[in-house]
């Protein structure tokens, strides 16, 4: 298997952060004054970040070129240097260039963006289906694939932990009493809806943001590549406590997930 320069650079950066910040390898929650992305945990989020970097390259090149062109225009066509205005009104060649070039750039951008768009909407034979229901102001999770002896599915509510009840190391306004537990390296379908008003189930590290609409079932696909805790929040203004209904997804190894399901069924 060939190793590209990009993979080598990413590995060196990973080693550097691991050495200086041994307890902060991955950023899976929002931080103060954050302007970048959280670390990706799914192929979709990796694609979003790569597309962003590709677009930023074009944006930087275009911004520098336009700034340089405007600067030269202001300098060379200043009133004192051009006492008599130019009579030139049309330039066929330059008009063709500034029409074709942006169209060509947009065509280049469209190819990876459409590919990513289709990847985000694709649902690949999910092994697990989880229904997420938004309420004012908490979430309900239903694992309907598993039925207990009393013929009931696994259903539980997830509330934010108040600040006075937080343990050392827990994140303010982001921790919940019942996390959504899912296994890694497994195709998972999340069905999202709401019981009252509009909500939005969003977890940045997973590259997912799915609207929760009353009376409608929206679905999204998740494939997590590494274990960890992933934090999100409702991303639709849903009332006075909109900022107090966080989301915590805990990705665990498959044996641990099976044990968790067994314990839930026996409760």
UniProtKB/TrEMBL annotation:
PROSITE patterns according to UniProt: COX2 (PS00078), COX2_CUA (PS50857), COX2_TM (PS50999)
GO process annotations (BP): ATP synthesis coupled electron transport
TM helices/strands, residue ranges: 12-35, 55-75, 96-120
Main localization (coarse): mitochondrion
Signal peptide positions on this chain: none
Keywords: Copper, Electron transport, Membrane, Metal-binding, Mitochondrion, Mitochondrion inner membrane, Respiratory chain, Translocase, Transmembrane, Transmembrane helix, Transport
The Cytochrome oxidase subunit II copper A binding domain, residue ranges: 125-263
Superkingdom, natural source: Eukaryota
Co-factor requirement: Cu cation
Domain Cytochrome oxidase subunit II transmembrane region profile: 29-124
GO cellular component, one term: transmembrane transporter complex
InterPro entries: CcO_II, CcO_II-like_C, CcO_II_C, Copper_CuA, Cupredoxin, Cyt_c_oxidase_su2, Cyt_c_oxidase_su2_TM_dom, Cyt_c_oxidase_su2_TM_sf
Catalytic activity: 4 Fe(II)-[cytochrome c] + O2 + 8 H(+)(in) = 4 Fe(III)-[cytochrome c] + 2 H2O + 4 H(+)(out)
Pfam families assigned to the protein according to its UniProt record, in alphabetical order: COX2, COX2_TM
Cofactor note: Binds a copper A center.
Topology class, membrane: Multi-pass membrane protein
GO molecular function term, any single one: oxidoreductase activity
Compartments where located: Mitochondrion inner membrane; Mitochondrion membrane
Similarity section: Belongs to the cytochrome c oxidase subunit 2 family.
Function: Component of the cytochrome c oxidase, the last enzyme in the mitochondrial electron transport chain which drives oxidative phosphorylation. The respiratory chain contains 3 multisubunit complexes succinate dehydrogenase (complex II, CII), ubiquinol-cytochrome c oxidoreductase (cytochrome b-c1 complex, complex III, CIII) and cytochrome c oxidase (complex IV, CIV), that cooperate to transfer electrons derived from NADH and succinate to molecular oxygen, creating an electrochemical gradient over the inner membrane that drives transmembrane transport and the ATP synthase.
Protein name: Cytochrome c oxidase subunit 2
Organism listed in the record: Asparagopsis taxiformis
